[in-house]
Write a structure and sequence with these properties.
Strand content: 25-35%
Shape: globular
Helix content: 10-25%
Distance between the termini: 51 Å
Number of domains: 1
Largest sheet: 7 strands, antiparallel
Strand order of the largest sheet: 1-2-5-6-7-3-4
Structural class: alpha+beta
Number of strands: 7
Oligomer: single chain
């Protein structure tokens, strides 16, 4: 996989608490190790037809491989100020993140302690107007727990601004037999529990 050269500010490493760290890099979307991601990217390019991005009205979730739909989220994006809401949230993502975030914003999704980044997935789609591919490694005290690989695709109603985004996830775990819910149990829930505890006043 080739690391993309990107001079824009981005969170490369985030220490969520004393037990969890996220290392994030961006690679060329064409370098995804997954055939399904590359085929979805190729289909998106074909739909562009010379435009910066196709319109979501030309698409349906049924255009994506059925095996991937549980790990897809669709966001409605508005600009000035930047704001996004999840129109669709796959059932596999509910397992990983511990809830259904349909109708919610990225700021509601764990780990909440990361907050909203100006170089996050939604902002990168709006600012760069191109697909991107993020690889996030989740590290615990005993090493890499797993990683999430995310293909993000922009959609535009006017061929000028990004109005919708697709986020297509793949999750890899250190132990192949480890259930996906372990991501929430071992990483996200503990991070936000620690955050809540630190915000609670002492009696």
């Amino acid at each position: 996989m080739k690391i993309m050269h990107d001079t824009s500010p981005t969170r490369r490493t985030s220490s969520l608490n004393h037990r969890v760290e996220i290392q994030s890099v961006f690679i060329a979307p064409e370098e995804s190790p997954f055939d399904t991601h590359r085929s979805v990217l190729d289909a998106w390019k074909n739909k562009c037809g010379g435009r910066m991005a196709p319109s979501w009205s030309e698409y349906s979730l049924l255009d994506f491989p059925s095996s991937e739909i549980p790990f897809i989220s669709l966001t409605d994006i508005s600009n000035s100020p930047l704001h996004s809401v999840y129109r669709f949230w796959g059932t596999g993502l509910t397992q990983v993140f511990g809830g259904d975030y349909t109708g919610k914003t990225p700021a509601d999704v764990p780990p909440r302690s990361l907050g909203v980044s100006s170089s996050g997935g939604c902002a990168r789609l709006v600012n760069n107007l191109t697909p991107h591919y993020e690889v996030k490694k989740f590290l615990r005290d005993n090493g890499v727990f797993g990683q999430a690989l995310v293909l993000r695709l922009p959609f535009s109603d006017d061929a000028k601004t990004v109005n919708h985004g697709i986020n297509m996830y793949k999750f890899e775990l250190h132990g192949a037999e480890t259930p996906l819910k372990t991501y929430f149990d071992e990483v996200f829930s503990r991070v936000d529990d620690d955050l809540t505890a630190s915000e609670t006043p002492m009696p």
